[in-house]
Specification:
Radius of gyration: 31 Å
Structural class: alpha+beta
Strand content: 5-15%
Number of helices: 3
Distance between the termini: 66 Å
Helix content: 40-55%
Order of helices and strands: HHEEEH
Shape: flat
Largest sheet: 3 strands, antiparallel
């Protein structure tokens, strides 16, 4: 009886020791048994600038003769006319917005060739009509299956 209690206590202590080591590794990126013991002070945990390198990668964007857009870390061939040099910071978790060409004004009403979103009244109406069509198709399928089962 006493041996079972001691065994349970040892298992719990070992489990807590392992979990605490894992948490320390996740928070600091270093093993608690490494030569340099990591500090767990709040400023060292929140200071992410020192942990991440501050290098920016260079990428190139260009369009070839066939109209295909290419992205590369190496400069394009000399025959390419329009090359855009991009500076990419791997430590920033943001997506850059699209460049809007000058002289292009946004349209107030959607035309036939633009994407209709469900956030506009006409888009919401189209979404509702599409949902009714799907429901009609499902109802017809159900009736056909019901007729097949009743026929058997």
């Amino acid at each position: 009886m006493v041996y079972k209690l001691v065994a349970k206590i040892l298992v719990m202590v070992g489990l807590m020791f392992g979990v605490s080591n894992y948490i320390m590794y996740v928070m600091t990126g270093k093993s608690p048994f490494s030569a340099e013991m990591p500090s767990l002070s709040i400023p060292s945990i929140l200071n992410t600038d020192s942990a991440l390198p501050s290098t920016k990668d260079t990428a190139y964007k260009w369009t070839d003769e066939k109209g295909v857009v290419h992205y590369s870390s190496e400069p394009p061939p000399e025959t390419t006319q329009q090359v855009k040099k991009l500076e990419v910071d791997p430590n920033v978790n943001l997506i850059q917005g699209l460049d809007v060409p000058e002289g292009v004004a946004p349209t107030a009403t959607p035309s036939n060739d633009t994407l209709v979103t469900p956030y506009t009244p006409s888009g919401a109406q189209k979404l509702l009509e599409d949902a009714k069509d799907v429901q009609r198709i499902l109802d017809e399928r159900f009736e056909r299956q019901k007729a097949i089962i009743d026929a058997e």
